[in-house]
Amino acid sequence: MSSTLAVSTGAVDLESANVRKVESKVDRKKLEKAERKIAAKQQKKTFKTVEYEASKLLEQPESTQSYEEFYMAVNPLQLGASAGAGKTKDIKLDNIDVSIGGLRILTDTNFTLAYGHRYGLVGNNGV
To answer: What keywords appear on the UniProt entry (predicted)?
Structure first.
């Protein structure tokens, strides 16, 4: 009987001829550790909740509400005791004296630089 005839009649099992019997060389401890790590990541992802604050601009102003009231609702100012004392970014110097070369230029002056404003210095060499 030829080999072609044996294959066509089904006398030869083709799947067993192509399969090699190789034992798995996977380290079970490493596999379990990797699976635990992946499961922890997936669990963290499912329980992660993000709470977004809805935009105050989406809330339409009431017809009785003035523009100033709506503006203050969208952009609240922190004045007085409610504002954090350490959160100001302004520079304020009170009662300073400036003298150059022994000559007093400014006496008991209040100096304030507001955050967000641009300032320039002009000296002997111009701008």
So the answer is: Coiled coil
Q: Which two tokens stand for residue 56?
A: 């105050």
Distance of CA 59 to the CA centre of its chain: 25
Which contacts qualify for 51-60: CB closer than 8 Å, 24 or more apart?
none
Beta bridge partners of 91: 113
This prediction's pTM: 0.29
Radius of gyration of the chain (CA): 39
Distance CA 15, CA 21 (A): 12
pLDDT tens track for 79-127: 555 555 556 788 888 899 989 888 999 899 998 998 888 988 888 876 5
Q: Which residue, among 113, 109, 87, has the nearest Cα to 97 in the 3D structure?
A: 109
DSSP state letter for 110: E
